[in-house]
Amino acid sequence: MKSLIIRAFFLPNNNRFNDLFDSSGCDILLVDLVTIVIMEEVNMKYVIINHGFKGSNIENWFPYVKEKIDSDNLQVIIPQYPIDEKHHFYKYWKPILDNYKEYGYINGDTIMIGHSSGCMFTIKYLIENKIKIDKLILVSGFNNFFAKGEDTFHSAVNKSFYMSDEALLEIKKLSNSIFCIYGDNDPYIPQDKLNEFAKN
To answer: What is the pLDDT of residue 11?
Structure first.
């Protein structure tokens, strides 16, 4: 069954987002594109990609993955989270994913991908909401790491996503498969931190 896809922007003056953003902290990059899919038969699977610190849903390898994967029965969704200094924190990112959860995009068949600090954001969200998914892919993920010389804003943002190592283990109960992908020449995260995150 083909799906009828209706795409709608929830603009800053929309009541759903008034409690998330004030007028000075919101521009087009901070507007979340919520895709509402109406289907006679629910057979669509979703892939949700979450960007990291100061990220964008149109940068890195995200558009390439979307182009390669999008099909009649597999849809890639890449939310744009706020990256201004006031709203670049877990409590402001969470309501955006809540919208996707409300419309049924995050379920037992969903594949979720996190990049950089978006890995811990994704994990924390799933654990807090006790949501089971099909696959979790973590690209260059880390937890409880603060770089030397890191500015206080960057540290505060990361801290809002972090969890204790013990609490982090709960994610193993919430995904059928977990994959950790990372390189050996990351310019920001030490190799031992990447290794430690993947092994845990």
So the answer is: 37
Tokens of 156: 């505060």
- Domains of the chain (ranges; CATH) run 43-199 (3.40.50.1820)
75 contacts 147 by C-beta, under 8 angstroms: no
Q: Percent of the chain at pLDDT above 70? A: 77
Q: Which residues contact 122 (CB under 8 A, 6 or more apart)?
A: 50, 112, 113, 114, 136, 138
Q: Residue 114 forms beta bridges with which residues?
A: 50, 138
CA distance 135 to 192: 24
What is the C-alpha to C-alpha distance for residues 113 and 79, in angstroms, rounded to an integer?
11
Answer for the pair 89, 157: CB distance below 8 angstroms, yes or no.
yes
| Chain mean pLDDT for the chain | 79
CA distance 7 to 41: 19
pTM higher than 0.85 for the full model?
no
Determine the length of the chain: 200
Provide the H-helix boundaries in the chain: 15-18, 62-69, 90-102, 117-129, 152-161, 165-168, 191-199
> C-alpha 151: how far from its chain's center?
23
Residue 174, pLDDT > 70, answer yes
Sign of the torsion angle spanned by Cα atoms 64, 75, 113, 88: positive
Residue 189: what pLDDT? Answer: 79
DSSP assigned state of 85: T
Which backbone phi and psi does 172 adopt, to 5 degrees? -65, -20
Distance CA 151, CA 176 (A): 37
